[in-house]
Amino acid sequence: MRYRPIFMEHVVIIGNGISGVTAARHIRKQSNCRISIISSETEHFFSRTALMYLYMGHMKFEHTKPYEDFFWKKNKLDLIHAHVSKLDPAAKLVHFQNGGSLGYDKLILAVGSKPNKFGWPGQDLQGVQGLYSYQDLQSLEQYAPNNRLCKRAVIVGGGLIGIELAEMLSTRDIPVTFLVREPSFWGNVLPASDSALLNKHIASHHIDLRLSSNLKEILSDGAGKVRGVIIHETGEEIPCNFVGLTAGVSPNIDFLKDSGIALGKGILVNRYLETNVQDIYAIGDCAEQKEPIGLRRAVEAVWYTGRMMGETVAQTICGKRTAYRPGNWFNSAKFFDIEYQTYGWVFSGKNKNDMEQHFHWEHEDGTKCITVAYQKDSRIFLGINTFGIRLRHEVVDRWLNEQQTVDFVITNLMKANFDPEWYRKFEISIQSTFQKSTKQLIS
Fold it and tell me: Is residue 436 included in any domain, yes or no?
């Protein structure tokens, strides 16, 4: 690899997740500066989204590492396995928990998130945890290795991590009770029809789904381990040996409180991912936009946005100051057997405005559906949710940029289909249902 000697500064990156590593790779492509990547989680970068597949036995840890171990030395990326306890921006020093410090010229904070805790009694007992880090996976193996040592697990919180954890535990035949505070799973994010489909699908996998249920207390066995939980609404006690706290995540910023770096929910940054302190940047889950971009949240704990932030900040570090422009919102996930995609904006009933109209189609088998959002008067396409049907990102993204109408999208839906050719196609049924619904609206 040939290096272009732009400058010889020392760039320190705290965090070796997708954000920090992407920044390091793109800085290295454009410069010969010294780069140090600090992490206390694992020595090498791994794919965090693959954690569930390690527990399920589909992969081994070495399979989750996108790069061979020799990659880092070959590319002159210095890996430091240590925990950062505090920063001294005035002296441009990073201090380590076990002593010692490291100087920097430019600092990138890519410190990620931590699972939310809301002060529940017993939340720090053994066998109570989130699922975010590699250490969380190791702890899960300790407290929920099988259904002999873990007779039942309780999951608190109805988000994407919660559904992943439910699937993981069910593969080891561990009974799961799933406490969701909303009256429908992910009902604060999805339209009611989409959420209802997931309620049925979760129950079909023998998960004890408890809607409109909040955790009151986690009970101790007297020896520091969890023995059960109490539901707030009913007072019911549910015996269990493991509690998964999956009620969202929040930026991992406690160690920055006395640093002089401006903080909100996360590390406050401008469009260039710069903090209020010169030569310090923040990217990924820990970064909070001072002014949210369009309808996006100020903090986005999403894999692909972290990658994009890493690419963007690298340009600025290398002398080409570049604003972060994430484009149209999209995301994907998996709910047991059902793949989910979303493009643009499809709001839940609670959050959508009066001018947002929805068209919904659902297959009779209850595992496939789409919901299309569009502007009521202009009929401009706003977004789409799909369950069990794959779409091509570049096609849907182009339709959003072109501000196509919902009629155009439904008519051309086959062009966006990304399912393999031997999969059944449902566009004819979708189009027929759409035509009927349109006629009903007109009449």
Answer: yes
